[in-house]
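In line with agreed milestones, the collection of sequences with tokenised folds has grown. One record among many is set out beneath this paragraph:
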Amino acid sequence: MASSYPKMAVLGALPNAGGRRGGDGKLPAAEWYDTGMPTPLTDSERVAALEWPTQRVDVVLDTDTYNEIDDQFALAYAARAPERIGLEAVYAAPFHNERSTGPADGMEKSFAEIARLLNILGRSDVPAFRGATAWMPESETPVSSPAADDLIARAHQDRIGKLHVVAIGAPTNVASALLLAPDIASRITVTWLGGHARGHWDTREFNLFQDAHASRILLDSGVPLVRVPCLGVAEHLRTTEAELARYLKGRGPLADYLYQTYADVYPDHFAKSRVLWDVVAIAWLIDPGLTTTALLPSPRFSEFFTWSEDPRRHLIREVLALDRDAILADLFTLLR
């Protein structure tokens, strides 16, 4: 694994940084964000929850596993790192692209893929739950699902530290749980792969764009949030068929399954690479030296899917850069 020394910074931090203020410039006793949800956290409590956890963490993974080939690698990475990650459950997230007929079909296909992977991993101890069959229709309307119900129940369990929710797809399941039980915002920390880097000309990224209302819940609710941008950050975690053939193929059932999943993407891999986007969200939890992060005011996105920033907003942690070689070295070591 890479160096255990964290690379973190605090940018844009202001006294009493948060959402709206009263006329005297002070935060009201109960802070409210754009979603209309009361957050049970103070700013200092939120920042504390955004520190890299030094102890082994309890994790639930929310994933659109059949959408691409990177979710499979992320799930396997989390399951193969028991010294750092206690994987408690996996939730199937909805998606819609050429691999599904709609969000419900995408969720069902992801649920089946999760079951296949957990079987290959030999992780019968980890339950899988079906998620939402539709996107969140508006910012105040949750979508009930077994995944959202399980997240609420687990968040309410007594535990040492926070429950870490890693969302690497459309975040309807997580956002719905926050709307159904707002108090869990003080009991969880969410790591979400969504949107592009702040300097990018737009943020029409797959997870955020298809599930805009749920994405706004994560950004506006005040829940402790670690955001992994796609273009500008996660896009640098590229690998090739040749690299996977060299370091994974023939190294066991799991390694062979992941290699073949990747190999099947192109009929000819000449001069082609592919991004393992979702792996970055797991890497952040495994070792802070694998990424560079900073505390920044939570951004907003417009109806045109462009970022806007307000330094008075509450802080989130954001991944700014990654160590591609160190992440892949750790990943390959654990997968074979």
User: Anything to note?
Assistant: The longest helix spans residues 103-121.
